[in-house]
Amino acid sequence: MEMNNIRLSACYIVRNEEKNLPISLNSVKQAVDEIIVVDTGSTDNTKAVAQNYGVKLYDYHWQNDFSAPRNYAIEQAQGEWILFLDADETFPTPLDKDRILSYLDSMQDKEMILLTRHNIDNLDQQRIFYKDWSPRIFRNRHDLRYQGRVHEYVSKSNGDLQVGYAPMEFYLLHTGYAESISADKCQRNLQILKQAIDEGAWEPVYDYYLTDCYYGIQNYEAALQHAIAYLKSGTFIYGGNGRSYRMILECMRALGMPDAEMLPWAEKACQAYPDLPEFYAECGMVLCGMGKLSEARALLQESLQRYDEGTADFRHETYFSPEVAAKVAARLGEIAELYGNKKEAAGWFVQALDYCQTNDRIVAKARNFLQKNKIII
Q1: Is the sign of the CA dihedral 90, 91, 92, 93 positive or negative?
Q2: What is the dihedral of CA 280, 281, 285, 291, to 10 degrees?
Q3: What's the distance, CA 373 to chain centroid?
Q4: How far is residue 141's CA from residue 24's CA, in Å, rounded to a whole number?
Q5: Hey, which residues does 90 pair with through a beta bridge?
Q6: I need a surface site. Which of 88, 108, 215, 324 has the fewest CB within 10 A?
Q7: Spatial separation of the C-alpha atoms in residues 152 and 68, rounded to whole Å
């Protein structure tokens, strides 16, 4: 293909991804004009798998720096736009070339495009545990390169990046944060971050990344400290900083801290993200623990109303999934039962089952109440 006809280049850096890579490649191969794969030291069949797809394959010596091989891959690409994916990211259906190019043509004033990622445990069940935005498409220009040894990000050498948010039809499935592999990744990333910090490469955003690392290895005290430090720094990450509030609340729970100490953080999160349903639910759950059931009930109901209406700013990442909605509905059922209103309780438990039937604990709780009260659904 002539160089001036290469509109979209797909790029990957890989290591021991023989299982994930073909799934991802199959989802993009018809939509891109070339595929660049940079291997950083695979010991399995990753390179052979890549070659079967006719990619441009390169070797790169791993140096504990994720930006370096990414930037090397960009230097090999000839496309006007770069689509940079991880091997554990895939489009749910093959990316349509005409649709993605038409969309990019409409983004003439943008330099980087964020795609929604559905973070899931596996591709079979596709249970979403949270959604985020990730910069995955950007212009192939010399002033746009990755920075950071770990949790690398696209940076512009002069001025601010002009960013666009892609339509939901271009969302990705991502298995890289699955529980089965998350702890190993966190330990690896922690060592790289520590090395960078020891060498004087500190950035305020490192508190954000350290929060995830320490939480992933269950060092909740350290994770809590870094999450608070990150929010105090005033640093911004695309998709919003709501995850840091969530980490603070999760760490406080794991550490068994009093609900009264958690409540101010949940309230701050509500103030910072008034359109997101999750922090109303967080406040409601904390108030339940404090015995303030009337206040809790109102906030839990508001969280479900916001979730059902779908009025949240789409640019904010969210972890309010159908399973979370089911937990909230089940808690409202329990509150109604405590108040002696069995009819209302039944309605909430039925709604919990409507939201989600993959959580055994919620399903058992709802069905036990309905069976005990001889309610047939």
Answers
A1: negative
A2: 50
A3: 40
A4: 25
A5: 173
A6: 108
A7: 10
